[in-house]
Amino acid sequence: MNEAADINEVSLEELKKCYIRILKQKEKQRDYTRKLRSQVLNMLGDKCVYCGCDIQEVLQINHKNGEGNKEFKSISDKQFYLNIIKGRRKTDDLEITCPICNSWHYLIKIRKIPDRWKIIFK
Q1: Does some domain include residue 119?
Q2: What's the pLDDT at 45?
Q3: What's the total number of domains in the chain?
Q4: Does residue 99 register a pLDDT over 80?
Q5: 8 located within any domain
Q6: What single DSSP character describes residue 113?
Q7: In whole angstroms, what is the distance from residue 4 CA to residue 62 CA?
């Protein structure tokens, strides 16, 4: 009976080690993708084209003509960034925006809703 308990404990310990190894690999991949994203932001101007926000953590890569959802259904973020960095994807239809200006762009330029408000940043 003790042998069965030992086998279960070893198996659980091995599962824990495997799980930790997987978590570390995923974190490495997230860090790599963040670095690629940072490179792309730098290539595209590193600030919101509308308001000048330069807080990289909040900046977004905006598709000027919409269509971003279609592109991201076919490739991952990492592949998107790599394609830009390696010159396999043109960037003339992309711009850097903050979340607020990206929403404004979507409403005004994509959905064609009249621009009847003023955005004030503090």
Answers
A1: no
A2: 95
A3: 1
A4: yes
A5: yes
A6: -
A7: 57
pTM of the model: 0.74
- The verdict on residue 118 lying in a domain is no
Between 40-44, 84-88, 110-114, the lowest mean confidence (pLDDT) is in 110-114
For the stretch 60-85, pLDDT in tens is 999 888 777 778 788 999 999 999 99
**Where residue 111 falls among pLDDT bands split at 50, 70, 90?**
confident
Copy the structure tokens of residue 99: 């979340």
In a domain, 66, yes or no: yes
Q: How far apart are CA 61 and CA 7, in angstroms?
A: 51
Which of 72, 71, 62 shows the shortest CA–CA distance to 110?
Answer: 62
The single residue listed with the structure tokens 């998107």 is 80
Cα–Cα distance, 27 to 103 (Å, whole number)? 30
Q: What are phi and psi of 63, to 5 degrees?
A: -85, 115
Domain range holding 59? 2-110
First to last CA, the chain: 69
CB 60 within 8 A of CB 100: no
